[in-house]
Amino acid sequence: MKPLNLSNDAPWKKRFRAPTVQYTMVAHQNPNRGLAVSNQSGVYQLYAWEIETGTLRQITDKPAGVVYGGISPDGEYIVYHDDEQGNEIGHYVRVPFTADVTTPREDITPDLAPYASFSANESLNGKWFGCTVADAEGFKMVMIPKGGKPEILYHTQYLTYGPIFNYDGHYAIIATTERSKTTDTCLMAFNIGEASNTVKILEEEDGRIQPVDFAPLPGDTRLLATTDATGFNRPIIWDVATGDRTDIPLNDIEGDIEAWGWSPDGKKILLSGLNQAVYQIYVYDLEKSTLATLNHPGGVYKAGYFYDNDTIFINYEDSTQPTRVVAMDANTGEILRVILVPGDAPAGIKWRSVSFASTGGAQIQAWVVTPEGEGPFPMIMHMHGGPTAVQTEVFSASAQTWVDHGFAWMSVNYRGSITFGREFQNSIQGMLGHREVDDVAAAYHWAVDNGVAQADSVILNGGSYGGYLTLQCLGKTPDLWAGGMGIVAIADWFLMYEDQAETLRGYQRALFGGSPDELPEIHRSASPITYVDDVAAPLLVIQGENDTRCPSRQMQAYEQKMRDSGKNIHIHWFDAGHGSRAMEQNIEHHELMLNWVYRVLG
User: Fold this and answer.
1) Are 390 and 384 in contact (CB under 8 A)?
2) What is the pTM for the complete model shown?
């Protein structure tokens, strides 16, 4: 370890404070107006983006931040889910594009009780606004006609999201797990232009179908979607009016291929390939049935879309430099210009990809970054959240903080991660918290055997599901770890289910195959609180007081059991929800973690 650097101008603090743009979008019918999510105020907020000048005008000013929003097709309004201090329970509101942080918000659903939601959409002709409303009664797909009252399109107890409308607002699509009773979704298409609301269903015998968007043209009823029935995500097009399905023939490409969206003329689709956590952008010409592999620099590409028929706007970053929004040539992949520039940040050290075998012969990919000099080093063993997520080579102020202080850092794409195939992703379902632990243990042995990590100085770290795995690894493989740092973590799946928002309750049922009452033994064996007596290393937990994804009561119960068993645990509670969106609060949390690790490792 290097000397602890907590000075205000420490390079690691400058990385956290560097302004970045998380994602952008452009109004379909007004390409001079867009929406950006940025932390330039010090907290992630929504900004009205005047594209011609590059000006960002702050729209929200919530202490816990706002990271999801949308812009109306005509560019007149910005829409977001307004909650209480990050608790993710509230109402959708809208505010004029020309507004600022002082402008009153208009409640879109004033007659509804507060609800959780992760999906909202508006038809491009402005006829319908739709959103998912999740509350104690289940999942409701709500449609609101322009100037009218909310209507319930569909109601179920199973994990469901939508609706997504075609341009004219004649068709609405939802994705639901009601038929599979797992995380596999099928699509239901409602002809809302007819009084009978005719329904068509598109599903796989074995696999999930996920909707992306309708073609952006009047009268067009083609829906872009993805399916993983072949084992990896592939794009399909479903004409909901005729029922015709077209599978895009891309079987010779390895890894997942995500569909991102349509060109404005509806003739091309933008695709993102991700194989072994490495990105490749493609454009598929529907008229010519040809795939163009764009020749772009290596790095991480996210939140891409066609700005016009020849230009893509996309977020670009790598492990050495933070996110910026760039314009990419849609025919070649050449980076034409930087659209939104982040602030300066000290450069990071580049990561490298490694792989190794875990139990059952599973091949696990991970990212490793080490400080200058010869190993072995003390190490931070990181696990991403999700579990249906993936760690890619992003610019991580957190990872580089540890490298600055002489630590190696390793992030494991454990089983359950996406982009490694359907079998890999689904292998944990119904038995959470076991194979992932095996994979993290395999990462430990790889790091020690290859001279990267000091065997007695490996600290677990992760947030959300990664925080859960931190606690689960400490209890199930206690001899490997010098300590653990769990952020907004899961400790008890039973109390989780009782207290969390309905959106996550439905997701939990889908992951496990049923509720805790239906599958008590599986939930017990998946809960870190079950293994408290076996924990040997110290634990630091940083938990949000207003978190409805990983609520406070289940962590309080875990803390009490740890203390009753004489275990070393410290919990820091902060006034927000599922993680911090404020840069100074992130710095505060990392100071806490640094001080704690230095004490633990002496």
Assistant:
1) yes
2) 0.85
